[in-house]
Design brief:
The protein is an alpha/beta fold and 445 residues long. It has helices at residues 19-31, 65-68, 77-89, 101-113, 128-143, 160-165, 191-194, 198-212, 239-249, 301-304, 320-335, 338-359, 387-399, 424-444; strands spanning 44-48, 51-54, 59-62, 120-125, 147-151, 183-186, 218-223, 253-257, 281-284, 295-300, 363-369, 372-377, 402-403, 405-407, 413-416. The chain starts with 18 loop residues before the first helix and ends with a helix. Bound molecules: pyridoxal-5'-phosphate.
């Protein structure tokens, strides 16, 4: 039975959050650890396309896609059918015990789609953090070296190793140490704040690596091609290519964390494609499987195959239902050319965001690529981060039934991550709500 299609429009039946959501939220505080934050305490019952329906019958526009996960949209029939078909056959065997085709097929797709025209191999895991951990394991084993270079504002996950790789203390790291050793952080390229061009920013990072770590100790340079949680920071042109070239020359591996940027989000299959940067290893997750937990590491065959037998794995990694969802989602991305849709989203939304920035001095910069767009808020006339402005804009959007997320080391960035298939009228309506939220901010000044 296919559930009824939900009309793609915003519809408020109660104040948000509504009474049922409030009830559930009360239960939550007695059942769920306080360590988990809530962006917007509206409890969801159903979703379709770019609309979330809450337990009170409100229909919200989803401009977050579950943090860049539901890139193909919610309840896409092809994905739902693939999941259902697989669930009717088997849910689990453990790929390391008795394998199955879906796992192999997802690895084939990853090897084909990730940057680089050479022989590749992949391995599948459950979460982005697990993929990053495994990329680091692989890089260390393959190079026989230990140092991992990461950058300022990096986000790579919340496990002990990935927390060590992540830059921001609060809330990710505070009190959770000790952290993993042999992780070294250097400056990134953040054009709005550092004012450097790409090659100069790369030179500074490389000098820091050479002087404080030593090129011959470096196993890998790990970086998000556009930094996600850190603030949707797009490095200046030339930064990534220069860093990748130095890494290769140093005999180390260049690892791209494409967990948030991958799978058409930035207008190409992977964000590295934009500057023809070819990583040795790529970590993927989020957008790969339309909401089911799946992650991958893909890389040069000789690197991936340098690991001893049994060195990689896990009970659930590459789960059959998750791989079925991924194959269906990847096919939808190809068939509907969602990379082109992501570019269209930027064309449609960026002028509106630029116009908002022109009317308020609170917006310091509009940036991003494809369907990964952001506004950085500052105290007017300065570059001092203004997280309070972001809180107030988010609250205004939420009250009107538009799900928008924040990010940034300073909590002062609003990020838009709609599903790539969002219809024009919904994106238009969502942006109109954002515009009015930004306008009321200016009125408060
Ligand atoms: C979300 C994210 C991760 C962590 O993924 P999880 O699935 O939450 O473990 C790692 N790197 C980047 C760039 C991310 O956006």
């Amino acid at each position: 039975m296919t559930p009824e299609h939900i009309e793609q429009r915003r519809l408020l039946t109660t104040q948000l959050p509504g009474p049922r959501s409030k009830e559930l939220h009360d239960r939550r505080t007695h059942a769920v650890s306080a360590g988990l934050t809530v962006g917007f305490p509206v409890y969801i019952e159903r979703a379709d396309g770019a609309i979330l329906v809450d337990v009170d019958g409100n229909q919200l526009i989803d401009l977050g896609a579950g943090i860049a996960v539901n890139s193909v949209g919610h309840a896409v029939p092809e994905v739902t059918e693939a999941i259902t078909r697989q669930a009717q056959r088997f849910n689990h065997t453990c790929f390391m015990v008795t394998p199955y085709e879906g796992y192999v097929e997802v690895c084939e797709a990853l090897n084909r789609l990730t940057p680089g025209d050479f022989d590749k191999r992949s391995a599948l895991f459950n979460s982005g953090a697990e993929a990053v951990e495994n990329a680091v394991k692989i890089a260390r084993r393959a190079t026989g070296r230990q140092a991992i270079i990461v950058v300022e504002h990096a986000y790579h996950g919340r496990t002990n190793l990935t927390m060590s790789l992540t830059a921001k203390n609060m809330p990710y790291k505070d009190g959770f140490g000790p952290f993993a050793p042999e992780v070294y952080r250097v400056a990134t390229s953040y054009p709005f704040r550092d004012g450097h061009d790409g090659p100069s920013a790369a030179r500074l990072a490389i000098e820091a690596i050479e002087t404080s770590v030593g090129a011959s100790n470096v196993a890998a340079v790990l970086i998000e091609p556009i930094q996600g949680e850190g603030g949707f920071i797009v490095p200046a042109d030339g930064f990534l290519p220069a860093l990748a070239e130095w890494t290769r020359g140093a005999g180390a591996l260049f690892i791209a964390d494409e967990i948030q940027t991958g799978f058409c989000r930035t207008g190409s299959w992977f964000a590295c494609d934009h500057e023809a940067v070819v990583p040795d290893l790529v970590a993927t997750a989020k957008g790969i499987a339309a909401g089911l937990p799946l992650a991958g590491v893909t890389g040069r065959a000789e690197v991936m195959d340098s690991i001893h037998e049994g060195g990689l794995g896990g009970t659930y990694g590459g789960n059959p239902v998750a791989t079925a969802a991924a194959l269906a989602a990847i096919e939808v991305m190809r068939r509907d050319d969602l990379a082109a849709r992501a570019r269209w989203i930027e064309q449609f939304a960026r002028p509106r965001l630029e116009a908002m920035a022109a009317t308020t001095a609170s917006i310091g910069e509009v940036r991003g690529r494809g369907a990964m767009l952001a506004l950085e808020f500052v105290l007017p006339g300065t570059k001092v981060p203004d997280p309070k402005a972001v809180k107030s804009v988010l609250a205004a959007c939420h009250a009107e039934g538009v799900v928008v997320l924040s990010c940034g080391t300073y909590g002062n960035v609003i990020r838009l991550l709609p599903s790539l298939s969002i219809p024009e009228h919904l994106l238009d309506d969502g942006l109109a709500v954002l515009e009015s939220a930004v306008r009321s901010l200016a009125a408060d000044d």
